[in-house]
Amino acid sequence: MAEEAIVNDGSVQDQWGQICSQLKNEVGDTAFESWLKPLSLGSFTDGVMNICVPTRFMRNWVITHYSDRIHKIWEKKNPAIKNINFIVQAARDEAPSLYNPTSRSLLKRITSTPIPQNIYQSGVNSVVANCNSGLMSDSLSVPLNPQYTFDNFVVGKTNEFAYAAARKVAESRNISFNPLFLYSGVGLGKTHLMHAIAWHIKQQDPSRNIVYLSAEKFMYKFVRALRYKDTAAFKEQFRSVDVLMVDDVQFMGGKDSTQEEFFYTFNSLIEEGRQIIISADKSPADLEGIESRLKSRLGCGLVADIHPTDFDLRVGILNNKAKQLGVELPYKVAEFLAQKISSNIRELEGALRRVIAHAQLLSDKEITLDMTQDVLKDMLRSFDKRTTIDEIQKKVAERFNISVKEMQSSRRARTVARPRQIAMYLAKQLTSRSLPEIGRKFDRDHTTVMHAVRKVEELIIEDSSLAECIDSLRRSLEA
Ligand code: ADP
Ligand code: MG
Fold first, then answer.
1. What's the CA gap between 105 and 149, in Å, rounded?
2. Which pTM does this prediction carry?
3. Neighbours of 29 (CB within 10 A)
């Protein structure tokens, strides 16, 4: 038997980091946070890579949903990895889960284990940050997705204006519009365009300090600064920013103190001639819960919207994506997918990935229309029947034997509060509603929803019977 090698080898750890960032793109933030972020590397013996999973329930879930994919990606990167084994065990001290730097156990480890400082610098997504080699050195920023470039952005009638505006901002030496405000429904390319601008600017002038972050992260950072009475340091972080990009500002709705701080940051950067790029799900005037002076500031540059995709753009995107993945996509299949999945591009890409993974896992089976229809049966059925928050509330209330009225009430007893949190969590997972929109359905503000989502994510890890209960609720809602 070969000697057990504890994985502190940079290369395997690096590969894991890259795999995590790839999976995060593939499965989306929520699934990644729930199922993959808690994994950590264990030992590597005889070609078998051990991955630690906190609970048995999670292990089963990860094996059914992600193990093939993880294996496939890893095998490509490192042929020495012959097999992957999932073991139920809390993260090992030698191999901290790089994706979980805020967990209590890891915080403890930071003080006891000498780990290179840069691993922790940019918070949750630190590994991806490392992949971006020096790009987002500021800890405010969230890493950029290397796939989100102008080259990978397919232009069609519905997005050509936003694309042209983004290119103009990226290419101009002088500021032409400030701020650039991009808006659209979900999954139509706002984040992609923002990252593309950042990559482009950085390529032309690596010295420029670009900060890209979500409004949720801005809020989180600000609230934390308030809690630790450290707002001066928070403000200071923005002083040297050349380009500030804030994604999904609708999440600031109803959060007055954050908006005020953002307004201040926004104005001072604009006054100093720095570029600001904002995205949201609605036009500035239609944003809910945003102060009117901020709305008017947001709308005073160039406002560009991305319309829902048309058939041609969807086919174009599918072909482009298939080409990137080195796969031949028959026109009939592209046509079928583009007809069936018109809601948003993220879902379209997800469907394509599923078809490709299927074809590859079944020893390079050819992609055909029949096979596509078969693989996507469940997914397409769920498109026909979208889950609503009302249904979620009803199902969860039934399961816990309370009424929907109680769930929406202000009662804080655990018997009511826990089901309420679970319903909020499921609403975030199963619908495309924003946090404020979910909040309104429960007569709460979006921070309560955010808190509930985090709480339930923690509970899922700690309590496998609750995790199973939530999973069965999810399945019954999706059925
Ligand atoms: P949004 O931020 O508007 O919710 P994203 O930018 O996250 O949407 O886009 C969702 C997915 O669709 C991403 O994987 C992105 O790369 C892809 N995408 C969106 N628009 C295009 C496009 N025009 N060409 C290629 N890919 C696109
Ligand atoms: Mg986005």
1. 37
2. 0.58
3. 11
